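#structure-requests
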Amino acid sequence: MAMKLVDTFWFNAVWFQATWFCCVLGREPWVPVALLSLALHFYLVADRGLEFRRLLPVALVGLGVDVILTLSGVFDFGSATIVPLWLIVLWWVFAAALYRSFAKIGQSMWLAAVLGGIAVPFNYMVGAGLGAVSLPLGEMLSIAVLVAIWIGLLPLLYRISHRMALAA
């Protein structure tokens, strides 16, 4: 059976980065574009209901962690809501990328932990540098908190994603 475009590493990697920039650089004004990008993903998958069930737990856990970090003063998104709509969309996009283009990383929980402790805090720092989020506790303490969380959270999200795929 031929591989669908949505199942290819490169398509997903480019799709994720483009949508990440839409969300982080464009924020609320670009949410419709980010939602169209997410709709494209769901259009391209074979079973939309199954895909929704795969992505939902990862998106909810990630979003829950960001809500906790916001309520505890690690993040300030400067919005009227606890977290902005663009971040909610971004978590769905991350869940899709985790399952598809980043899946190989999750085959090693050690690699997932190391990358979780480096790459994810780096992405939050880039977001802060672009003005998408402020770090009221300061950069160093925020990095330390993010590293401590993401060393364990990224492997956990991979496990959730893998289990949801197996359950399908």
